[in-house]
Design brief:
By secondary structure, the chain is mainly beta. The chain contains 1 helix and 10 strands; from the N terminus they run H-E-E-E-E-E-E-E-E-E-E.
Length: about 160
């Protein structure tokens, strides 16, 4: 073999091996230059090879959250207990009865019963379950997302509002 061929084969071998190396985590490699001497004593630089950086993309399976402006907000019944429950629910405002029914909510389920409408409008939300009751005045305003009547995992009645 000629003396020029040996250094050239070494450089090609190093570049080939470096290009085949992989890691399991996303990495960015900085290219490096290799300098070898030729018989004429003129340094040459091999072209660097770069491995492109990988970027992981987060994925989601849930629906995007819609932020309401306080004009409309659902009243949601949520049952976190492992038993079905029947409760009496009433939702009124100064001029109308929006909802006044007995509702059965299945175990580990939720359902919307009515939508509150109108900014700055006040509603009375009442519910009764097995001797427990709630009686809340709810006023809609910007950032108000949801009015929730809940049954916790012990079968206790609770009221919460979601606000952004």
């Amino acid at each position: 073999m000629s003396s020029r061929l040996v250094p050239l084969l070494v450089v090609v071998g190093i570049v080939a091996i470096a290009g085949c190396a992989t890691t399991s985590a996303p990495t960015t490699q900085t290219p490096t230059a290799t300098t070898t001497a030729t018989p004429t004593a003129t340094p040459t630089t091999a072209a660097p090879t770069a491995t492109p950086a990988t970027t992981e993309t987060a994925t989601t399976t849930s629906e995007p959250t819609t932020i309401l402006d306080g004009d409309d907000a659902p009243v949601v019944l949520t049952n976190n207990d492992d038993e079905r429950h029947t409760l009496r629910v009433s939702v009124t405002n100064e001029s109308a009865v929006l909802f006044n029914e007995t509702v059965t909510v299945e175990a580990d389920a939720e359902q919307t019963i009515v939508t509150l409408q109108g900014p700055e409008t006040t509603y009375r939300v009442q519910a009764a379950l097995d001797g427990q009751s709630i009686d809340e005045n709810v006023t809609l305003y910007p950032g108000f997302v949801e009015s929730q009547i809940g049954i916790d995992d012990d079968g206790d009645l609770e009221y919460t509002t979601l606000v952004n």
